[in-house]
Amino acid sequence: LSPPGDSYGVLPRPCHALVLLNPQSGSGRALDDFQAVVQPMLAEADIATTVFVTERAHHAHEKVRDEDLSQWDTLVVMSGDGLLFEVVNGLMERPDWKEAMKKPLCILPGGSGNALAASINYYAGYDHVAKKKLLTNCTFILCKGLYTQMDLVSLSTASGKRFFSFLGFGWGFISDVDIDSEKYRWLGSARFTLGTLQCLAKLRVYQGRLSYLPVAAEQGGSSPAARSPQA
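Structure for sphingosine kinase, as requested:
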């Protein structure tokens, strides 16, 4: 459920939600936190849940890509930003992706990094919080049932793959920290600190080329050749 915009939709009551949950996310407490914190609040708000617990990478991606989603009013992701990334890209691979992407999405923080949940918490007017308090705030936003649109970023690679992101794309040092710290997932958010120190100790050199079209030229209707300075 996105940050405030100019107009809102409202979830129906009663509401049926598909909850996609990664039990390994964060420090491994996502399922326990969902049962202890989230489920009682949703029950009070007349939101019934079907819980789908992922068992491997890309499991949620395949679920939302292939499943008949008409039986649910909203899709709820209880994990970090990575599982929502899977869900968004799974929806965009559906033949009926235009309709599927109209299904309201909700993120409940249960991972090591919960950037989107923290952003929504901020735009909803709440104080900066983390962990259980952030989870409670985001669950309360879901209970209220308001949703609005949010932009996606599209990236096509040289190999022909296409990805969609709701935050941004990383390349180089930051990506290495994220990937290399996977083995420390049990540390929670501290995994990124440890991963950063390790990547600094074996600092690599990244070479690449950045191409772009000037915004002013696009607005003027012309299509100059992409400029390609070294990056």
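The longest strand covers residues 15-21.
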